[in-house]
Design goal:
The complex is a heterodimer of chains A (about 120) and B (about 600).
Chain A lengths: L3 H15 L8 E6 L2 H6 L1 H14 L6 E6 L11 E5 L5 E3 L4 H13 L13
Parallel strand pairs in A: 1-2
Antiparallel strand pairs in A: 1-3, 3-4
Helix pairs in contact in A: 3-4
Chain B lengths: L3 E6 L2 H5 L2 H14 L6 E6 L11 E4 L3 E3 L4 H14 L13 H7 L8 H4 L17 H6 L4 H9 L2 H11 L11 H10 L6 E6 L8 H8 L1 H15 L3 E7 L3 H16 L4 E4 L4 E10 L8 H8 L23 E5 H13 L1 H5 L9 E8 L5 E6 L4 H8 L9 E6 L6 E3 L9 H6 L8 E6 L4 H15 L5 H18 L5 H17 L3 H5 L2 H18 L15 E3 L9 H5 L5 E3 L12 E3 L9 H5 L5 E3 L1
Parallel strand pairs in B: 1-2, 5-6, 5-9, 6-8, 10-14
Antiparallel strand pairs in B: 1-3, 3-4, 7-8, 10-11, 12-13, 12-14, 15-18, 16-17
Helix pairs in contact in B: 2-3, 7-11, 7-14, 8-9, 8-11, 10-12, 11-14, 18-19, 18-22, 19-20, 20-22
Classes of the chains: A alpha+beta (about 120), B alpha/beta (about 600).
Chain lengths: ~120, ~600
């Protein structure tokens, strides 16, 4: 180790991997992963969220986690987005493609993708 | 892409309750469910709640599973990791039902046990994988060393440590900055840094947990100390009884060397530093700084007179700085966040936080870290969860065989160095043994004396002979042969040993006796005058009796008695069908087997 820059580079590289353990995220994305959700294709949705959030550098801000059956099985895969001080947003019949869009527009841009929400289905 | 991490405690506590098997089982089950690409297993250091081990935490949600058994793993993997349903029956929670409803998912940081704590020395314990230097670096690891070497002069480093108010966490409480400046002021061709990890107090495991959970922070802090004091070599003296700590420390040193964070010309600053590990055979006296250095040199671990102090003539006759593990664990954070940040925590003369190992009759046995000035009541009632079985708190023993005890009446004293010294106690290294009404204080004093008699190195007479005489007097008192004169003699001898012993071991050995005499003198008196042990511990002063009117005459006690001291009488209690039994006191060996057998609680000890 010859410079602080080298140290910073390692830190940068590793940070995404440990930040999950700090629990300081502002936004919580919850994917319904009960049998109904998995059968409807929740797994690729969950994985897309994880990958995209990391790719967009949102790891410290957004926590992607899973939950059991939300209760609206016909709308699965269901994804809920919780943000402090804001109303919960519920996306339904999600796909990996839609997930990418939600990360881009909602999580990054701050604009709810209204057409995928439960109120529009 | 990893979306979830499963942290499994690999500290000594959880390893002994089976966490190794859990790790294998998790690996197998995760593989089986095809989750290897999504879920990562991380073996960490101690989380603190050792009583609830093995401990498993699932992130990102922070779900805290306690007492996880091998058979539970399949369920956690298929339910939680695969389907996202928390396995409620395994979740540990000490929060109220109301709060629970509000936050829906109770995570580790919501529990009362963690909420009240402030983690500085333990900040990475249970959070990172201690065997992975990259994870330590991700948590700002080695940034303090980088900052010190590239931006600060050695004088500036010492000034920051001095200004922070950090004091030795090994027990004495000597200002760390001052210690470093003494060594720095001495000119020599070679100087050393020594880390004292010879944690010997019964019931203390703070240092072990830091070494197991965050070994790199000790490596980093010792390098910083080396830079500040002008030392190029360091030794960590650690007990051989801490195999996990030793292994992780060695891994950490190896990784640091590979990264060039130990060795020549670190951070291109021209500063060289390297570390060695020395294993101690476990003699208590080797925790004393001069004895420790004598042991590192390869000699029998015996203390030497001071002065000369180690800062002048220490290891191999060279100026040496010796600090305890927990002291070092605070250093990198102080350098990074500044003296003011550290000094903002704690009390006027004791800054920062202190780690305690909670043990004894307390609900949450484990490892905690609180700001200096926290009261004993907060530690025991809030974090510790109170006394086991709803019994009454009697006293807390601090500082192990060198310390004293804090009685219930002083529970609201803010814990810091000076307050504890003022009440005749001692901070010690941080072992906190909680005692309830069933503990006899004379017996406690005897327990610690037994320990020091064993551990006295024998070099000086006051300690070698004096502690043995103390123990003999205590034996006499607990066997009911003591007199009031013995109590006076005991006290006098205590002061004599304190004043005349060569090293810290002898100088502090009488403390458990003096402290119990100070706060629980009436217990000593009842042992010698009434020949009674009110707590019911001292065997020689107890008699077991069968309350004849409560006895149903089942005879179970007589069957259990190993000494055949129980026989049937011809007395039949009113309302009972069979004759009562009685104990022959002359044959009774006071084992208590009858009392625990009796279903009718007809046997009492008094």
């Amino acid at each position: 180790m010859k410079s602080l820059a080298e140290l910073a580079a390692i830190k940068e590289k590793m940070q995404n991997k440990v930040v999950m353990r700090e629990g300081s995220e502002d936004i919580r994305v919850v994917v319904g992963m009960a049998t109904c959700g998995i059968a409807a294709g929740a797994r690729p949705v969950l994985n897309t969220f994880v990958e995209e959030v990391d790719k967009e550098g949102l790891s410290g801000k957004v926590m992607v986690t899973q939950t059991g059956c939300i209760g609206i099985c016909q709308y699965e895969p269901v994804v809920e987005v919780f943000e402090a001080g804001k109303e919960k947003v519920t996306y339904v019949k999600m796909t990996a493609e839609k997930a990418k869009e939600v990360v881009e527009k909602h999580l990054k841009g701050g604009k709810v993708v209204a057409e995928y929400t439960i109120s529009n289905s | 892409m990893i979306r979830s991490q499963v942290l499994i405690c690999g500290g000594t506590g959880c390893t002994s309750s089976g966490s190794k098997v859990l790790i294998e089982e998790f690996e197998n089950r995760i593989e089986e469910n095809g989750l290897s690409e999504e879920v990562k297993i991380v073996r960490t250091g101690c989380f603190g709640l050792c009583a609830l081990g093995p401990v498993v935490i699932v992130y990102p949600d922070g779900t805290f599973y306690s007492r996880v058994q091998k058979d539970d793993v399949a369920e956690i993997v298929s339910e939680h990791l695969l389907k996202g349903r928390v396995v409620e029956r395994l979740v540990y929670s000490d929060v109220d039902e109301e709060v629970k409803e509000e936050i829906a998912n109770v995570s580790l940081s919501d529990t009362t046990f963690y909420k009240t704590q402030k983690r500085v020395a333990l900040r990475n314990c249970g959070v990172i994988n201690p065997e992975n230097i990259d994870e330590y670096i991700a948590m700002d690891g080695y940034a303090a060393l980088g900052k010190a070497l590239t931006e600060m002069t050695p004088e500036e480093v010492i000034k920051v440590i001095s200004d922070s108010g950090l004091r030795g966490r090994g027990g004495g409480g000597f200002p760390t900055g001052k210690k470093w400046s003494f060594t720095a002021a001495n000119k020599a061709d070679q100087k050393y840094v020594v880390c004292n990890a010879d944690e010997g107090d019964p019931g203390a495991f703070m240092d072990r947990s830091v070494l197991e959970g965050d070994p790199h922070c000790i490596v980093e802090a010792m390098a910083i100390c080396g830079y500040a004091t002008g030392a190029t070599e360091g030794y960590v003296y650690v007990r051989a009884e801490y195999p996990i700590a030793v292994e992780r420390l060695k891994i950490a040193i190896k990784q640091a060397r590979e990264y060039g964070l130990l060795g020549k010309n670190i951070f291109d600053s021209g500063f060289d530093f390297d570390l060695h590990v020395r294993l101690g055979a476990g003699a208590f006296v080797c925790g004393e700084e001069t004895a420790l250095m004598t042991s590192i040199e390869g000699n029998r671990g015996e203390p030497r007179p001071r002065p000369p102090y180690p800062a002048v003539k220490g290891l191999f006759g060279k100026p040496t700085t010796e600090n305890n593990v927990e002291t070092f664990a605070n250093v990198p954070q102080i350098i990074l966040k500044g003296a003011d940040w550290f000094a903002s925590m704690g009390t006027e003369k004791s800054k920062g936080t202190k780690v305690f190992a909670l043990g004894g009759k307390i609900k949450n046995t484990g490892l905690i870290e609180v700001p200096m000035g926290t009261t004993l009541r907060e530690v025991i009632e809030d974090i510790g969860g109170g006394i086991q079985g709803g019994k009454k708190f009697k006293a807390a023993q601090t500082g192990g065989p060198s310390g004293g005890c804090i009685p219930a009446s002083l529970m609201d004293t803010p814990i810091d160095y000076d307050n504890l010294t003022a009440i005749g106690c001692m901070m010690g290294s941080g072992g906190l043994i909680v005692m309830d009404e069933d503990n006899c204080m004379v017996d406690i004093a005897k327990f610690f004396l037994n320990f020091t008699v064993d551990e006295s190195c024998g070099k000086c007479t006051p300690c070698r002979v004096g502690t043995r005489r103390l123990l003999e007097i205590l034996d006499k008192i607990t066997s009911g042969k003591g007199t009031l004169e013995d109590i006076d003699k005991l006290e006098e001898l205590c002061y004599y040993i304190k004043d005349n012993s060569l090293c810290g071991l002898g100088q502090t050995a009488p403390n458990p006796v003096l402290a119990t005499l100070k706060f629980f003198r009436e217990e000593y008196i009842s042992h010698v005058v009434d020949k009674k042990c009110t707590a019911g511990v001292c065997k020689d002063l107890l008699t077991y009796k069968i309350v004849k009117d409560s006895c149903f005459g089942c005879g179970m006690c007589a069957k259990q008695c190993p000494a055949e001291a129980i026989s049937v009488t011809d007395y039949v209690a009113p309302g009972k069908k069979k004759p009562a039994y009685a104990i022959d006191a002359s044959k009774c060996v006071k084992c208590g087997a009858c009392m625990s057998t009796c279903k009718f609680k007809a046997i009492v000890k008094e």
